[in-house]
């Protein structure tokens, strides 16, 4: 924590390091009270840096015990201890610097650096946690070869792990065990890891494409040893996929994964020693939902893929974070698409992007994919850097085509292996391999905000010519009033009476080679452009932004009939889903108006009819059907309403009314599908079973919205379920649509049955946090007193408070302000315990500009936080930027 106002760090101020650390030797003496860390840094002056003998090492919350230069104790006048650094003067060009520091991991509640989780020691060093372990050049462009020695009490810590290969294990005269790990690959400090504890492991192996045998291990607490199978399978699939799709082979003989309960994020890609939040690795039908299984597969893959996109080639500085994260998210999304349904995966990703990333882009913390400044880097592990960053890579893939993209990726890895590089280096490799000019495309890296495409049409019957006029714009974001035009790949098709029409753009030669020319990608790169299609037999309905070809908001004035045609007849699965969403948005808005003027809601019969048709369409995969039937979320509807116009209560009531109308109108079809899709076999996280359960949950929701029948079926489902997915979907329906008498007993039963499983309890907390009834705030407060709640455990805080603030709009935004107050109080408390979590939790309060009639209440809470003593830089940055 800093007392003075924290400073801003700018990309433009980047300077190469003054020294390099060729080798790093670390020695840990792990103790219950004190841990002693001895470092030996083999320093070499950097010819590319400023050539002085001054060196400032980062260090935070450390007690310096001793410091030596080339073996000699360093006198106090040769160095200066600053608040968060150690300044050394007059260093020779090459030297050995040794430091002894004392730390107390058991008191480290920030979960950065070395800390305790339950009975084990573990580390989290990204982004700047290593400086809480020892004095170091804690920046990603300093890459070093690490050798790590750990001494610890063998009875308490039989498992002692670090990066690379285990070189020796010895029993010391003291009775402690000593292990030595050596990682041959140079790496930045953020990829260092250490684990010590009483852990069991499962082991398997993988033979790489060149025939090397790799040992794979997953370390967990003994009680969880049966929950590792899915993660292990996922790891093996990821390793094979990365070889086949990206030509990336694993490079060491061992790959370890460790599960820890207390973790700020999902998982971490430390070289050969990935550390995972238990929630992202353990799987069991009674504790992990279907979505959870899919998430584990995706996160295991994501961390594994970082071995190349992140570790072998890393970031020069933290402004380049999307270089590794955007690319790796793109890679894991491709992997998930290949493992399951590509369209469903795309729909899920777009749903997240549009409901949450677009909001970030429109809020006070908006930043480009490559930010230009930050106060606290931990605040920039955002949906923009990760998800929009992945969209930017996806657009490059679209612009280049799969072969040139792969050539660009190969060139990037080959050219930069072992280096710390920039987003620009990535783009350059893509340009060189493809021969394409991406100059203007680079605006996606430097400009924040979600571009808008306003599309209109005109039809010349006589000429058979159809014109699409496209105008792009991008709203101002903090520090960026004006935007230059983006390059926007716009996937399109034209739908005629009998299906998608052949496309012929005016001025372009017809391509006789092309069999299927019903799809094309238009390059929108100016503020205003016309695209003319000729030779058309009829006026088409345009199918726009196919596959969500760019992260933009698109407006086109569709009639409801046209949306229905696209929904049922377009070739593009994404457009079919998106048309259903657009239709639903319009219908909900209409009902919202009817309710506001005191009338009875009348849901457009066209919409009801379309819903029946969808339910009876045998060509639709059930997972896709579930997506198409799911109404846009309340958060997305609020986001669409725009600044000052989101009325959460009206949105909630209107959405409910539409749900009830569909449920009533389609009752028979819904119940029929619900029954047909019942899974008779034992639980498996297979695509078919997951799809069936997902559609059943959707049907059940509609039935319960319409009346008692849904509640009866939900009670039955809850009692009969052999897995948490169906238990929770039943309980969700009961607690959202039923009376207290409907949900109280099953809610208690769930805890009785699964209260011993932390991950199940977390979901039980989360479910209660979403309940829309009037008692919600009191319930959340009450649960914060529950013996299973622990403010120091991020999973608990996220499950209960994060879910409440993020997914219970009517109660978080209560007009009496009690929802806001609850959030502010816990953020204030967490500020001192775990600033990273405090600041992440705060995000929903920053959107005060959106909520009609609530802005003053929300601002008042932010102002109270701003006035707190000892504000962490994390919370300071979010609060101060959102009050501007
Ligand atoms: N690099 C990890 C995520 C991660 C980021 C930051 C952390 O602490 C601040 C921890 C983990 C990933 O992308 O999976
Ligand atoms: Zn990542």
Describe the protein.
With 884 residues, this protein is an alpha+beta fold. Among the domains are: 1-109 and 122-198, Sandwich (Immunoglobulin-like); 452-510 and 517-556, Immunoglobulin-like (Sandwich); 557-706, Peptidase M1, alanyl aminopeptidase, C-terminal domain (Zincin-like fold), CATH 1.25.50; 755-884, Zincin-like fold, CATH 1.25.50. 40% of the residues lie in helices and 21% in strands. It is built from 27 helices and 32 strands. It has an eight-stranded mixed beta sheet with strand order 6-5-9-3-2-12-15-14, with no helix packed on it. A five-stranded mixed beta sheet has the order 17-18-19-21-20, with helices on one face. It has a four-stranded antiparallel beta sheet with strand order 10-11-16-13, with no helix packed on it. Helix 25 runs parallel beside helix 27 (873-883). The chain is globular. 51% of the residues are buried. It binds O-methyl-L-tyrosine and zinc ion. The site of O-methyl-L-tyrosine has 14 residues, from strand 20 and helix 2.
């Amino acid at each position: 924590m800093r007392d003075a106002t924290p400073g801003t760090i700018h990309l433009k101020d980047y300077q190469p390091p003054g020294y390099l650390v060729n080798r790093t030797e670390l020695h840990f003496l792990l103790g219950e009270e004190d841990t002693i860390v001895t470092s030996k840094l083999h320093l070499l002056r950097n010819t590319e840096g400023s050539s002085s003998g001054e060196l400032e090492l980062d260090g935070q919350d450390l007690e310096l015990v001793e410091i030596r230069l080339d073996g000699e104790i360093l006198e106090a006048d040769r160095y200066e201890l600053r608040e968060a650094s150690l300044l050394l003067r007059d260093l020779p060009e090459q030297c050995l610097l040794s430091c002894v520091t004392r730390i107390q991991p058991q008191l480290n509640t920030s979960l950065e650096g070395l800390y305790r989780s339950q009975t084990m020691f573990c580390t989290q060093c990204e982004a700047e946690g290593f400086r809480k372990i020892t004095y170091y050049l804690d920046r990603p462009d300093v890459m070093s070869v690490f050798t790590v020695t750990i001494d610890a009490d063998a009875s308490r810590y039989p498992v002692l792990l670090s990066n690379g290969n285990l070189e020796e294990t010895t029993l010391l005269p003291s009775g402690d065990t000593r292990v030595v790990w050596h990682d041959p690959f140079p790496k930045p400090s953020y990829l260092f890891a250490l684990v010590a504890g009483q852990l069991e492991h499962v082991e398997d192996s993988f033979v790489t494409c060149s025939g090397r045998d790799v040992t794979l291990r997953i370390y967990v607490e003994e009680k969880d040893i049966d929950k590792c199978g899915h993660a292990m399978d996922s790891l093996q699939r990821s390793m094979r996929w990365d070889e086949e799709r990206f030509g990336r082979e694993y490079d060491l003989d061992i790959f370890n994964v460790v599960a820890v309960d207390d973790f700020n994020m999902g998982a971490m890609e430390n070289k050969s020693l990935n550390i995972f939040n238990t929630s992202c690795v353990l799987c069991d039908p009674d504790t992990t939902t279907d979505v959870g299984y899919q998430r584990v597969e995706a996160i295991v893959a994501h961390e594994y893929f970082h071995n190349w996109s992140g570790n072998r080639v890393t970031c020069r500085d933290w402004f380049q974070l999307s270089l590794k994260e955007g690319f790796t998210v793109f890679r894991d999304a491709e992997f998930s698409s290949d493992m399951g349904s590509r369209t469903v995966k795309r729909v899920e990703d777009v749903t997240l992007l549009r409901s949450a990333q677009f909001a970030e882009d429109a809020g006070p913390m908006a930043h480009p994919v490559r930010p230009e400044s930050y106060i606290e880097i931990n605040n920039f592990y955002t949906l923009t850097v990760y998800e929009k960053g992945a969209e930017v890579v996806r657009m490059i893939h679209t612009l280049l085509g799969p072969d040139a993209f792969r050539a660009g990726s190969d060139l990037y890895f080959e050219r930069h292996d072992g280096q710390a590089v920039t987003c620009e280096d990535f783009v350059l490799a893509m340009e060189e391999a493809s021969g394409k000019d991406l100059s203007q495309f680079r605006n996606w890296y430097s400009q924040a905000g979600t571009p808008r495409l306003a599309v209109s049409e005109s039809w010349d019957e006589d000429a058979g010519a159809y014109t699409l006029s496209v105008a792009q714009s991008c709203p101002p974001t903090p520090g960026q009033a004006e935007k230059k035009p983006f390059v926007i790949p716009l996937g399109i098709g034209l739908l005629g009476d009998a299906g998608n029409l052949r496309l012929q753009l005016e001025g372009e030669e017809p391509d006789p080679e092309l069999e299927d020319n019903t799809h094309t990608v238009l390059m929108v790169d100016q503020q205003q452009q016309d695209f003319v299609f000729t030779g058309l037999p009829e006026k088409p309905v345009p199918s726009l932004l196919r596959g969500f070809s760019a992260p933009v908001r698109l407006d086109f004035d569709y009639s409801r009939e046209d949306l229905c045609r696209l929904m049922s007849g377009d070739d593009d699965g994404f457009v079919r889903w998106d048309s259903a969403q657009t239709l639903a948005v319009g219908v909900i808005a209409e009902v919202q108006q009817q309710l506001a003027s005191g009338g009875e809601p009348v849901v457009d019969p066209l919409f009801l009819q379309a819903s029946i048709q969808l339910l009876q369409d045998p060509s639709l995969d059930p997972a896709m059907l579930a997506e198409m039937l799911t109404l846009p979320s309340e958060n997305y509807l609020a986001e669409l309403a725009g600044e000052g116009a989101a009325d959460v209560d009206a949105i909630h009531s209107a959405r409910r009314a539409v749900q009830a109308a569909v449920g009533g109108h389609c009752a028979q079809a819904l119940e029929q599908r619900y029954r047909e899709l019942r899974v008779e076999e034992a639980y498996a996280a297979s695509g078919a079973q997951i799809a069936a359960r997902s559609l059943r949950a959707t049907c059940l929701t509609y039935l319960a919205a319409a009346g008692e029948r849904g509640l009866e079926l939900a009670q039955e489902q809850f009692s009969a379920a052999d897995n948490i997915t169906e238990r929770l979907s039943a309980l969700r329906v009961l607690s959202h649509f039923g009376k207290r008498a409907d949900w109280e007993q099953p809610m208690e039963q769930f805890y009785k049955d699964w209260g011993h499983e932390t991950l199940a309890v977390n979901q039980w907390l989360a479910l209660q946090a979403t309940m829309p009834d009037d008692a919600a705030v009191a319930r959340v407060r009450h649960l914060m007193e529950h013996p299973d709640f622990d403010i120091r455990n991020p999973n608990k805080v996220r499950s209960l408070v994060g879910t409440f603030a993020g997914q219970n709009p009517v109660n978080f935004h209560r007009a009496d302000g009690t929802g806001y107050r609850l959030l502010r109080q816990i953020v204030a408390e967490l500020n001192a315990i775990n600033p990273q979590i405090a600041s992440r939790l705060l995000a929903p309060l920053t959107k005060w500009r959106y909520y009609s009639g609530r802005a003053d209440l929300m601002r008042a809470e932010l102002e109270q936080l701003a006035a707190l003593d000892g504000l962490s830089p994390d919370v300071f940055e979010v609060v101060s930027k959102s009050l501007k």
